Here is the input.
Amino acid sequence: MKKRQQMKSKAVAAGKENVDHEVTSSRETRARFKKVPSLEEIGRRAHQIYIERGGTPGRELDDWLQAERELVEKLNATKEPK
Here is the structure.
């Protein structure tokens, strides 16, 4: 919960609109999918995304949501029969 509030505060400071919708994304994701990544996994991937884009601060929420989206898709991808 504290992490979510921090992300929301940063997003509001950055002038993001629809912050409540974005911040509740994690909770909704967990309700919609059978397999969800842990917060630690999302955090690691978000940090990788941050590094990949040059370490420019100010896009923490975007990085987090992108990481969550990527990991959820990867975990819930259906395997094609050979």
Summary: The mean pLDDT is 77.
